[in-house]
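Q: What structure does this chain adopt?
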Amino acid sequence: MVRKISNFFIVGSRFRKEFRRQIRSLVIIMLAFTIAFSWRQTLFDLSQTFVQFVTNIKNSAVSTILTSTFITLLAILLIFLTSFFLKEGNNHYD
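A:
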């Protein structure tokens, strides 16, 4: 009986540690999304200015589509670069 109660409190402390770690991760992720959302329009406006400068297009709809395409391609390139430079060795599944 004493052993069961002891195991309950040991598991409980592990649960509290993991719960705090998960809450901390959640707060960090929420703040990261808040930062990303606040910079969204600024990044889009800068990219749109760059695309309009390069293509010399003044039509708003075409400019918006080209800007979104530019941001998408840039993000895909960054994803590939980070996955290439941050990949682990071949035996990371063992």
